[in-house]
Design brief:
By secondary structure, the protein is mainly α. It is 81% helix and 0% strand. It has one domain (13-88): F1FO ATP Synthase (Up-down Bundle), CATH 1.20.20. The two termini are 30 Å apart.
């Protein structure tokens, strides 16, 4: 396989460099999106835990229903990360 210089192929060096960089930027952008989704889910789970513990502290008799609601909310929050992972690929 022979390597053809950018000028011979009809492109300038700048255009050639941009076409080489774009796939790398797409990969980095996807990684950033997954990281932000994971960060948001972690913050969401923390807020859910804080709210659930506060609710049980105010009304200890309702601990079981609060636990059920908190587990459901955590599951839905964590699903966001899985959506981000599948959408990036």
């Amino acid at each position: 396989m022979t390597v053809v210089p950018a000028e011979v192929a009809g492109r300038t060096k700048k255009e050639s460099n941009i076409k080489m960089i774009l796939p790398i930027l797409a990969e980095v952008g996807g990684s950033i999106h997954v990281g932000l989704a994971a960060l948001g889910a972690a913050v969401g789970v923390g807020l859910i835990g804080m709210g659930a513990s506060s609710a049980v502290g105010r009304n200890p008799g309702a601990a079981t229903p609060i636990l059920v609601q908190a587990i459901l909310a955590i599951a839905f929050t964590e699903a966001i990360v899985f959506y981000a992972l599948f959408l990036v690929r």
